[in-house]
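Aggregate trends can hide what the representation actually does to any particular protein. The sequence in question and its structure tokens are set out directly beneath this paragraph.
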Amino acid sequence: MGPSNGSELTQANATVEERVAHAYRDPLLFAPGTGQSYSDTGYGLAGLMAARVAGVSFPELIRTRVLEPAGLTDTHLVLPTEELPRVAHIAGAPGERGLEFYSSPYGTQLGHPAYGVVATLSDLLRFLLQFDPHADDRFLSKSAVRTMSTDQTGSYYSEGAGYPISKWGAGFELQTGWGDTGLASKASYGHLGGTGCVGWIDPADAVSVAFVSNQNWSASPEGRKWKEAAVNMAIAAVTAPVGRERRVGFRG
């Protein structure tokens, strides 16, 4: 969740710092330690903290620590203006009425740590492979990948508290928590984007799936079924017995 006046901030072309600061004016959703909520503001604050420690802007930090080491040449946190015509219109995205936030010039050039990254399908897959424990060429250590892909909600979940704390890694959804990707194993993890994109890694079968769409399929149960079916097709194809016809790519 973001600040309650998010639409007004968007119309005013507010900076990341201004969006994070405004969120502190809103009342708490629940007392600390008594609940859980997906939070754009939380990621925004974490990004600004990392940038402050590094002494550079967050986009510059991502460029030097992630994009360049991973070879992501067609991925942008702050999209160059000349690249705007390449961005797909996101149908049904939050804030679309009058703003079309996620694929708008403002959304793609804001540089917010929680959203706004623009990439090609091939770059998305290349990014996912950085978190495959079987891959040899990674910019992160095995311990970092393990932390991101295993439950970090700790005792809140295991002690059976009376509120819904879902299992979540340090950055990734887990198949045993919020993940819903059908044929993927319980060891799998990734992210199911609200704009209709999926990035999912299954170490059990050494499979990584990148799926992109311009439909906000997460907005309805029927849409989620279509998205799950697309991921299932990719997983089924690449795990087929050797010698049978395989289709190793899937494009929506």
User: Anything to note?
Assistant: Residues 157-163, 246-252 have pLDDT under 50 and may be disordered.
